[in-house]
Amino acid sequence: MDILRFATAGSVDDGKSTLIGRLLFDSKAIFEDQLEAVERTSRDRGTEYTDLSLLTDGLRAEREQGITIDVAYRYFATPRRKFIIADTPGHIQYTRNMVTGASTADLAIILIDARKGVLEQSRRHAFLTTLLRVPHLVLAVNKMDLVDYSEERFEEIREEFTAFASKLNAPDLTFIPISALLGDNVVSRSQNMPWYNGSSLLHHLENVHIASDRNLVDVRFPVQYVIRPQRATDPALHDYRGYAGQVAGGVLKPGDEVMHLPSGLSTRIASIDTYDGPVEEAFAPMSVTLRLEDDIDISRGDMICRPNNQPHAAQELEAMVCWMTDASKLGPRTKLTIKHTTRTARALVRDLHYRLDVNTLHRDEAAQSLGLNEIGRVSLRVTQPLFVDDYARNRLTGGFILVDESTNNTVGAGMIVDAR
Amino acid sequence: MLQRDYTTSQLDVLEAEAIHIMREVAAEFERPCLLFSGGKDSIVMLRIAEKAFWPAPIPFPLMHVDTGHNFPEVIEFRDRRVEELGARLVVASVQDSIDAGRVVEETGRRASRNRLQTTTLLDAIEENEFDAVFGGARRDEEKARAKERVFSFRDDFGQWDPKNQRPELWNLYNAKIRKGEHIRVFPLSNWTELDIWDYIRREGIEIPSIYFAHSRAVFERDGMLLADNPWITRGDDEPLFEAVVRYRTVGDATCTGAVQSSAGTVEEIIDEIAATRITERGATRADDRASEAAMEDRKREGYF
């Protein structure tokens, strides 16, 4: 059994909470005491139906105001897979939360109301999903029961969205007609839509192939922590020096020739250690400890790669940045702390090339700054080289966060483009 | 060429993520500590810490916030485990906080030291100058926890502000704090109760005996079975009876309930949990039943 992480996009009106509630309920991930609490609160508020959004809206302010404030993580499992849902709110701080939820997602579900068709917000959801390089996208055309399960209506929406998605360079795209309320095509295939030959949503989630979404080609091992037991009592451990980290790309094997950055020195992997014994290979997302044949001065923030396949050692970065705070703006000369893989440096914004309208994809080149929830193309200069790849090639060596130096808050998320 | 399938099992993914989180903390903070109560989640967390730094010892101390209302089996287990690891254990005692006048003991039939723990915990963090504190909380436990970050920022007063949390993207965690502030770190955020048990089975991890079915004198309160003990005030309408029970969670003995169960092995516990229809906190924690937002309110104050 493996894990699929997926993000859901859509507002309450699209039936997102109903859909999540149904997935959780039908997979028995909602428990009686949780359901009783939700039913009690629904009754107290005078709602006639059981409001499943109360399951995810956990904070007092959310329940009082009937809104979702933050990304909520929900868990369920079927015999085939464990699922982690990043449920992002539809209204407040949408972009910031969706970018956060999508950053780790293998798949995103965008809900569309079959009566309303492809709206501005559907385009925005699709754009953010592709910007964050979520490898699989599902367009769930919901409320099919309200359009008489019309194949024609479904095809209209499919065509309209496909035309738009081609402009985005959208990844694997799947369309599923559903009724979250009545359960059509959610867990099992619907009798009401004999014209639909595809999978139910849950069947798709259980079977979509994600193992090859990771980068298994470019060896990238950001050194996270140096392990030196230095126990005088155990001579075997006295000289032990291991480089601990989580594989960010490629497949590492003992005996492989590897290169250390920034030194550029080459050596071989002596062994790949874990608490449970040495392993014959390591790939993302494994956390392992490498021992190398030669003594090289290696510390946290360094990178281990292959001599003939190196990331770019860059102090000038081009990136798409999403700004996540209303306390300040990003503009030329803004100074920030940047964290990329295990390396932290200082960054200076050299230029804001344009601000992107996430609804129309229009590039505003006259923009002077980025505010909360705005996205733009930015040039940065950093105080020490970062070992980067294009975000499109590797999400782990292409993504970074920006931290405000006065408040220590995380204020931006960046995706590297045109690495050189 | 035969195409190798690089599928990774859910427990391997969760373990790798938790190890990554632990190493980030060890690399970026000066004085971390790991909350160890002898409960199953903290036992799993401790095993992950062993794995993360092997063959070196765990590079931070453990801390137990001791309400004084303990199950003796759990304290015995705690001390034995600490000794095996050669780790340093800091015991922060609620009794000491009461004796020092920092908190006042609750009175009455439902008196509990659950809420008092927060002061003891925050005082201990301040005294020891801990800047990162590992907790075993999971997002599936409770709906306020579903929204908490892996690196959860706490201000000078130890408070959590759920509306003003730092965004958390990819596997990048923001460890920046000022002196006096700290980060609560939850490496098991993405684990479910069933994952914890599956992991305990796979790794052959020892757990305290009270997790397995045993005979115990209990009484019923609010639909929960509470054990008779010296710290609890039992009413005349709450008669004691002998039952075969086990614990799903381990907390303060005055507010942690047992469930009727015959599960005597980890496998039987897993079968039982897979079939159960009530959450572990709903079944066994009086502290969460106080109100709809009981957990959120305690967490804001600085609770685990």
Notes on the protein architecture:
- The complex is a heterodimer of chains A (420) and B (304).
- Chain A is an alpha+beta fold.
- Chain A is built from ten helices and 22 strands.
- In chain A, helix 6 (120-131) links the parallel strand 4 (107-113) and strand 5 (136-142).
- Chain A starts with a strand and ends with a strand.
- The mean pLDDT of chain A is 90.
- Chain B has 304 residues and is of the alpha/beta class.
- Helices cover 33% and strands 15% of the residues of chain B.
- Chain B contains nine helices and ten strands.
- The termini of chain B are far apart.
- The mean pLDDT of chain B is 88.
CATH topology of the largest domain in chain A: Rossmann fold
Number of β-strand runs of chain A: 22
Strand order of the largest sheet of chain B: 3-2-1-4-6-5
Second rung of CATH, namely the architecture of the largest domain in chain A: 3-Layer(aba) Sandwich
What is the tally of beta strands of chain B? 10
Write the CATH architecture name of the largest domain in chain B.
3-Layer(aba) Sandwich
Q: What percent of residues of chain A are in strands?
A: 25-35%
CATH class of the largest domain in chain B: Alpha Beta
**How helical, in percent, are the residues of chain A?**
10-25%
- Stretches with pLDDT under 50, minimum 5 residues of chain A: none
Low-confidence region ranges of chain B? none
The profile of the biggest β sheet of chain B is: 6 strands, mixed
User: Briefly, what CATH class of the largest domain in chain A?
Assistant: Alpha Beta
Number of helices of chain A: 10
What's the helix count of chain B? 9
User: How confident is the prediction overall: mean pLDDT of chain B?
Assistant: 88
Integer count of domains of chain A: 3
State the distance separating the first and last CA atoms of chain B.
51 Å
Describe the largest sheet of chain A.
Answer: 7 strands, antiparallel
